[in-house]
Specification:
two-stranded antiparallel sheet, 20 helices, about 625 residues, alpha+beta, 8-stranded antiparallel beta sheet, elongated
Amino acid sequence: MFNNRESLPKENQNQRPSSKNLSDNVLPPQNSHRNMPPVLQLAKKVGNKAMTQLLQNQKQPRMPLIQRKLKQENLNKMKADHPDAYQQKDFEEAVGDDGKFTDVQADKGLPTFWGMLKEVFGEKNLNAEIFAKTKNELGDTCDRPHSVTALVTKSASKNDREGLKVVTAIGNLGKEEIFIREGAISGLLASYEGGHLVGYQILRGQGGDQEWNVAPQDTKNNKESYNNTIEEMLREAKIGTKYEYTVEVKYDQLNFSVDQDQLLKLGILKKIDADKPWEIQLPVRIPFKWEAKAEMLNNGQFGRPTAGNSSYDQYSENMDEGNLDYTESDYTARYHLWYSVNRGEDKDYTPGDLEDTKGVTGVRFSMHQALMSDHAKNKDPIAWKGRERVADYGSVQDGLVAESAGIRKAIDIMYEKNRQDFLEFDAMEDADQPEDFELVPAVVMDKMVDEEYRSCFIKELRDAKIGKEYDELKYANENYLESFSMKDDDLKSLQLEKDHLKDIETKMNAKDISPDLLKECKAMLQKQSRVIRVILNHRRERMAYSKIVKKTRPIYKRKWERSVKKSIAAHERFKILKKKSRKTVSDEKNLRDFEWNKNSCRRVETFDGFLKDKIDLRTIDTE
């Protein structure tokens, strides 16, 4: 009905009646303009083709509908310039033998490449085998990490873990991204594995195997540079060393664009679909930068970087990103290592440093990975006649620009946090220097060489149920006692940083503050945060220690003294019982049970073993 006039045969055009030359008292022809409904009159004016397009647009939204699992809120994350801040409940179960997470920021439920392309173009039009290594394990969505912080206390744990498929799958997201953005590159040496922000060997256990703690990391860097420098120093710290570890990843852009021509040539799409948008956005998965820092919280000691040249192939003195090259294995990523002594200024690491890490209170690592260059787009699609040129699921944003735009918000939050920490410190009482005491007096333990005495003592400890109080006091000694050794210099540093807070506030409130000044304020606040966090943590630990000791030690002391007294008495009774010339049936049974207990306890050597080893002890009545 709405065919173009040009498509009519010429003879029909010449014979077609016109209402223009009709007199007012003559009715117009049935199909004349004045007899047409308003919508058809509009079609006549603007052209049939344009009117058809207008009607279609009124019936259907500009953005194609995203169906099934991908929610609009998840698509909106692709437009966000700041990550989601996770709550404690989101990561409270992600713990290991040596540590736990205290802060997590990531994009929750971001669409995977498979999930996004499937929802836009339909599963039947995709070659699913291209995504075989990710779709079954990750499905339609996967978190994208931005930063994590963990509190770690090095223990003697040797807890290993089995590699989880989710970690490998996230590494394969990096390989998919290279393929989608750049195609099959000849001579490509860059490859990616699932790299933990906080390593599972640092946390000790499976707790680190979370989507928000894993990102595609350059394979050589993952196995050597990152692994053998800062991670080695943290993994091999002395037992009892306590530190805070923060790892942040940055993305050069948050999303990238792909078009149907590109996807067809790569074999991802089976055919061009004119009913779908020509160009869409996909979320970036490969971080451009990794930034890691560890701050000592007690008088512990970090380990040393691994010796050997292979660890330093990617080392750069100036982090010259221009040298990054996909085709040279040593330059697919570059890294730099810094360290600080006695909370001083950062020093550049050079191979041969850190033979002795005593006094090292901070370690910092920065790694840059080779950037992708987006595949050339077909800006004038020929085989596609659809409506939507671009489906704006998320603007292609420059991550560095987004970072600059959000820096003001970040420093406002940091400033308020530091201000509150200073107020908390001023309002917090300090604990008195604790009284020295032996948790396990040596004079008693020296008697344990006597196996007969040992079995009596272990039995009395078990009967007294002293284990709970022992664990509480041991934990307090191992984790909090060293906080009483804080030096006067630390308090002076705190006062100095408190004075700086006013200067920072003045700079922040200056009119037309420049980006460089904002970065300066951020650096000052970060340094200030490190100082106050260490000192405030010391005071919190001292108060915690005082509270635990005040409540638990009197109970523990009573149980301990009673157990020692009763075990000595029991031991003496058995010595007398053995010497009796005439023994009753009950005496013989008690002596047999005593020998059983003695043999069972023979292999137990430590006090922890006295309380916790699963040894069967027979009940003996010698009263």
